[in-house]
Amino acid sequence: MEPRIAVLRIEGTNCEDETVKALKAAGAFAEAVHLKQFYSDMIKESEKRKITDYTGIVIPGGFSAGDYVRAGAIFSARMKSVLKRDLEEFINNDFPILGICNGFQVLVELGALPGFEDKLSEKPEIVLAINNSNRFECRMSYLRHENRGKCMFTKGLDNRVVVYPVAHAEGKVVFPKGMEGIYIDRLVENDQIVFRYVDENGDYAGYPWNPNGSIYNIAGICNAKGNVLGLMPHPERVMHEWSYLDCEWSPEGHGDGWIIFKNMVDYIEKL
User: Fold this and answer.
1) How far apart are the first and last CA of the chain?
2) Residues 193, 198, 202, 204: is their CA dihedral positive or negative?
3) Confidence of residue 202 (pLDDT cuts 50, 70, 90)
4) Where is the active site (predicted)?
């Protein structure tokens, strides 16, 4: 199947261009698509789009709708109001969806993550809250790949430590009060935890290594099917080895972020 990937945007998203470039570098046809192109009567016919035009979706980083109400809340509400059934069908048909930073926040607000069921939850089951530092955190971060094989985006990482930059003010994973252990156990049992923050030695650690205070050092999770991934760090910003110094394992001069997009493309081609 041809990898045709839509990078969704609305006012306030600001990482769509580098995300499109990352996908193209990995071998996909990719374009930035405004959400209104899926439903607005004000869009020219030549610019209208349908979800069925694509075999993958990426929700990029930024500050969609100014992050008013909560980060990702307005973007997700607009998506859910016009595309809920289409998105559920897209996921259930095994097509991949990737949410990066603000995109992770959108997927959580949308009810696509943690994605224990085969449909979008009616209300968010987890929250990406304000960082413990109460400020915007922007730096390289070390992540240990934790997934045992379910997540299609991270095949071949094999529990390596990768280096991706973070740039967010609301990235702390929070579960319902009093149910934290239940959620963590379920995510671990389902093989849904994909990345956890670690220090430069690969050990789990607190601030500044965990930049937001996220419970269990969670940096990224996938749904129960493994075809929806949300993560706070930015793999699209480290596509090349010259993006930073330490990526000795990465093949052919690629940076640590390359494998996320290459796996997405390869996965679609095999559908």
Assistant:
1) 6
2) negative
3) very high
4) 101, 234, 236
Residues 6+ apart with CB under 8 A from 88: 118, 119, 120
33 near 61, Cβ under 8 Å? Answer: no
Q: Distance of alpha carbon 141 from its chain centroid, rounded?
A: 16
Residue 243 has pLDDT above 90, yes or no: no
106: nearest Cα among 93, 118, 120, 94: 120
Residues annotated as part of the active site: 101, 234, 236
Could you tell me which residues come within 8 angstroms of residue 82 by beta carbon, excluding any fewer than 6 positions away? 38, 39
Report the alpha-carbon distance of residue 267 to residue 228 in Å, rounded.
Answer: 12
The predicted-structure confidence for 91-130, as pLDDT tens digits, reads as follows 999 999 999 999 999 999 999 999 999 899 999 999 999 9
- Chain centre to alpha carbon of residue 72: 12
Per-domain residue ranges of the chain: 4-269
Say which amino acid occupies 57: I
**CB contact burial 155-172 (16+ within 10 A = b; e otherwise):** eebeeebbbbbbbbbbbb
Give the pLDDT confidence of 43-83 residue by residue, as tens digits.
999 999 999 999 999 999 999 999 998 899 999 999 999 99
Q: Beta strands 228-231 and 218-222: pairing type? A: antiparallel
Q: Phi and psi (nearest 5°) for 77?
A: -65, -40
